[in-house]
């Protein structure tokens, strides 16, 4: 009888582990957009500004990181006065658009655990290494701290112009590209 209980316990434990590993990242909530004060939303790089009353989904997680994590590459200026807003979260500094740097969605940013680490981005038949310097906040937005831009989706690698150039993407196609990335 003890053996039966042990086998049953093992089966339940295994099934629970498999189910837990297979869980996906689900929305954690949402916020309502607020209209930015005049001149307060920087639309450089075709950045979106929040729309009054629009519902924006928020996330505290991102999809699991693998050896080829699927993501959307977006463009961001990390320079002072750019559409990235304030200085980078990792070092409270601004970074040149000519330096390959990125911001990761909240779940991938991991509370800063990936700060100053390099990731490899694959897209457009090329690859580039870029340093993580910021969080693309998936939990908040539509306020002054976020330049009145909506929260980031949970699968974003927000990259400097240098990353887009290194991937050989023509400038008229900058802004949204399916990529993979790895640590």
Tell me about this structure:
The protein is α+β, with helices and mostly antiparallel strands and 183 residues long. The protein is built from 3 helices and 8 strands, in the order αββββαβββαβ. It has a 6-stranded mixed barrel with strand order 3-7-4-6-5-8. It has a two-stranded antiparallel ribbon with strand order 1-2.
- What structural category characterises the helix and strand content? alpha+beta
Order of strands across the biggest sheet? 3-7-4-6-5-8
Find the count of extended strands (DSSP E, 2+ residues): 8
The H/E string reads: HEEEEHEEEHE
Average pLDDT, all residues: 88
Strand content: 25-35%
Radius of gyration, CA atoms, in whole angstroms: 19 Å
Distance from N terminus to C terminus (CA atoms, Å) equals 48 Å
| Spans where pLDDT lies below 50 across 5 or more residues | 4-22
The helix tally amounts to: 3
Shape summary: globular
Largest sheet geometry:
6 strands, mixed, barrel
Helix content bin: 10-25%
């Amino acid at each position: 009888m003890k053996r039966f209980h042990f086998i049953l316990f093992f089966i339940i434990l295994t099934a629970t582990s498999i189910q837990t590993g297979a869980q996906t990242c689900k929305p954690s909530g949402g916020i309502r957009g607020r209209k930015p004060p005049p001149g307060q939303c920087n639309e450089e790089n075709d950045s979106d500004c929040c729309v009054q009353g629009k519902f924006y989904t928020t996330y505290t997680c991102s999809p699991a990181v693998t050896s080829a994590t699927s993501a959307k590459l977006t463009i961001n200026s990390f320079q002072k006065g750019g559409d990235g807003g304030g200085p980078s979260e990792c070092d409270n500094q601004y970074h040149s658009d000519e330096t390959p740097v990125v911001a990761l969605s909240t779940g991938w940013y991991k509370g800063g655990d990936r700060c100053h680490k390099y990731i490899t981005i694959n897209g457009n038949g090329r690859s580039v290494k870029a340093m993580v310097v910021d969080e693309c906040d998936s939990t908040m937005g539509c306020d002054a701290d976020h330049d009145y831009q909506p929260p980031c989706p949970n699968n974003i690698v927000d990259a400097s112009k240098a990353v887009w150039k290194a991937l050989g993407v023509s400038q008229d196609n900058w802004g949204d590209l399916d990529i993979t990335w790895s640590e």
